[in-house]
Description:
mainly alpha; three-stranded antiparallel beta sheet; about 5% strand
Amino acid sequence: MNTKSLEPIEHSALAFNQTMASSSASRKRTKRAVVKQVEQHDSDDNIESGFLARWFTGNMESINEYHREFSQKAFVNPKFLRMEFLRNENLNQVVYILKFQRIECFVKLSGNIYPDLVKVFLTNMWIHDGVIYSQVKEVDMAIMDEVWLSVAGLRDTGTIVSRANVADLGGFDKVQFFKACLRNPNSSMRSYSVGGLSIIPRLLSYIVIWILTPRGFNHVVLTEEDLILMYCLVNKIK
């Protein structure tokens, strides 16, 4: 609420005349501002159209899909882990877990990120026989097992884990595992919050939530899928 509208107005006639004059000037300024915004919007649209035409090599079907499916989606900025920090803090157990699971290389990947080009990649992406294909700026790309291994150190092996096959994980119990991760396992549990975790599970939860399966919301409460992945990390289930 504008508190000035609640203040008493003295010399009402003068105030009225000044209001009329200022309203006219305000309308002119507003009109000029609107025209400028429209011109800027048109200019931005032209610039974007130029970029998109080059990124998609003029393929209007892909450009329309980009606008429909990806252009307005939020981009989750990826995180990474500094291994020297873990060693300096004597957190060698986490280092060992990452090495055993062969994800040490992946979790420390860092570099420049270009969200718009990532969205173009996703728009043009298709998968055939387990290989990811796409095209960005007339550059054809194929991400196969050898690329995953050489760039991220990831292998196409291991157990596929989810809530659907949790019975195959050797005694996983969500409540019991979470309590075992707490600083005080005997404390009352109201939610699966990361706040009460001891240091090693807390770091593993960070790795799961921010790096392995990143999401753009609710990083405080662990899902069952988060706990399953943490359980596999701790119990050496590859």
